[in-house]
Design goal:
The protein is an alpha/beta fold. The protein has five helices and four strands; from the N terminus they run E-H-E-H-H-E-E-H-H. It has a four-stranded mixed β-sheet with strand order 1-2-3-4, with helices on both faces. Strand 3 and strand 4 form a beta hairpin. Helix 1 crosses helix 5. The longest helix has 23 residues.
């Protein structure tokens, strides 16, 4: 039985406004802007999946969470933010923590975590109308009419 889904987002999602007229970033492209948009969409996806999986009296059958995994020392970090120190890859374990932490310590499904603490979803991911529109678009693009 699947008990938990963990979706990677980023603090960069804060700047990821969702412009439905430019979702493919054809106008005004920047690598960081595209990254931020994708991470905001990841939060929206996790929030909607959590709502769809819902729950009965015992809570959701499968909980869904998103997180910023921390500033990890990767090639992307070194090339994009020269001089910014990062967590060594061997020590970057927030994703593992979120996947394995006791369920009752995490709170409600759909939450976003930064530094192992609950944080606010970006505005787009907290806006049900935006998430509805994204979900409909994703269903259309994937041809998936039903979740299960």
């Amino acid at each position: 039985r699947l008990e938990r889904v963990v979706v990677t987002s980023s603090l960069s999602a804060q700047s990821g406004a969702i412009d439905f007229g430019n979702l493919q970033c054809e106008r005004g492209y920047s690598a960081h802007g595209a990254y931020a948009l994708s991470k905001a969409c990841n939060q929206a996806f996790a929030a909607r999946l959590a709502a769809l999986l819902g729950g009965g009296d015992d809570g959701p059958a499968c909980a869904v969470f998103s997180l910023d995994p921390g500033t990890v020392d990767t090639k992307m970090l070194r090339e994009g933010w020269t001089g910014l120190p990062g967590i060594r890859v061997s020590e970057a374990d927030d994703t593992l923590w979120l996947a394995t932490a006791p369920r009752d310590a995490l709170g409600s499904s759909g939450a976003y975590f930064v530094g192992r603490r609950r944080a606010r979803l970006v505005p787009a991911a907290a806006d049900e109308a935006v998430v509805d529109r994204l979900w409909a678009l994703w269903r259309e693009q994937t041809g998936c009419d039903e979740l299960f």
